[in-house]
């Protein structure tokens, strides 16, 4: 996929968008440019869909979506970063990959995607360096235009959707580290940050550790039964089975806590959406 515009033309379009000017002369039409960016995003989505994800994720099918930035959000970004022209904006073409997966599985997904799209990828692990509470792994793709691929667990995705709705109410600046002026709103934003950085981090790490223990003890059980046949091996196998049962109960408890946390975020998102609509009215 190749576009027909020069870097200079796209930079001039950036200035028109940022300053609210009507494109003239050889400045390309915004709609045509966005159609191309959207086609790039769709192409990336289609490539991702061709990978056998249930095999990698234990039967889980991911939710993959794509989009090109709207003119309003693109203008906001160009105004916020006036020295960054359109060709250098990483996420004009965006794709999201979301699945019910552990942190270790998220790492495997990222490795698979980097392998699929080539060595020119840049990985940004926002789990290690969260941004205003936001956690995910982003992959920057170098295609005919830049594209961003966001890889999220189910909890990370639910939190991001909730926070996006909150930004529509409290101001999009909260996505960039700025707090609302009134104390009540600022306190709520801080609570959302804590939800991501404390509770969700703890849940995801715990689930990941349980999964790794289950895998480890499953392998140990098979090895010990082969190494020590007879009553002694059977006794060890029984002990491992009891431990596996304990791990299963812990995993189910974590699953219920994840479901409750997800529902809490869904309810908050609906509340923010309602507040936004009421303000419009």
From TrEMBL:
Transmembrane segments: none annotated. It holds the Pfam family RelA_SpoT. One of its GO terms (biological process) is guanosine tetraphosphate metabolic process. Residues 66-174 form the RelA/SpoT domain. It comes from the Bacteria. SUPFAM superfamilies: Nucleotidyltransferase. This is RelA/SpoT domain-containing protein. It comes from Arthrobacter globiformis.
